[in-house]
Amino acid sequence: MQKSLQITFRHMPASPAVEAKARELLERLERIHSQIVGCHVTIDTPDAHQNKGAPFVIKIDIEVPGRTVHVDSAKHPHPEDVDAYLALRHAFDTARRLLDELAQKRHAQDHRLEG
Fold first, then answer.
1. Which of 82, 62, 85, 63 is nearest to 72 (CA)?
2. What is the spatial distance between Cα 53 and Cα 45, in angstroms, rounded to a whole number?
3. Domain harbouring 81, CATH code
4. Could you give the C-alpha distances from 71 to 15, 42, 111, 114, in angstroms and in order?
5. pTM exceeds 0.85, yes or no
6. Over the chain (115 residues), what is each successive 10-residue block's mean pLDDT?
7. By the 8 A CB rule, do 82 and 50 touch?
8. What is the distance between the alpha carbons of residues 35 and 74, in angstroms, rounded to a whole number?
9. Res 77: pLDDT
10. How many domains does the chain have?
């Protein structure tokens, strides 16, 4: 990756363990999608998290040449996302699917241009 990973914690103290998990998940993603040039992860706890166990909200912006892929876990909530590590894993799984789709579209477009 050309730019470093940026992690922002909102409404919660920074956690080195959660940050390490985000770095690990990004490294795994980079092994599959080497064109990633930047990534920003926001980890947010809603107001109700401490009282009612509301899920963490993870937002990921992944920069690839010519495009930014956005993931917002609030749009696809999982009941298990009350755990920050599971919420991160679900968000990075969604990012992988979106990057896979983008790669397939680019591959199909390249073949159309060749033919």
1. 62
2. 10
3. 3.30.160.100
4. 21, 10, 28, 32
5. yes
6. 84 94 96 93 78 84 94 89 94 96 81 59
7. no
8. 26
9. 82
10. 1
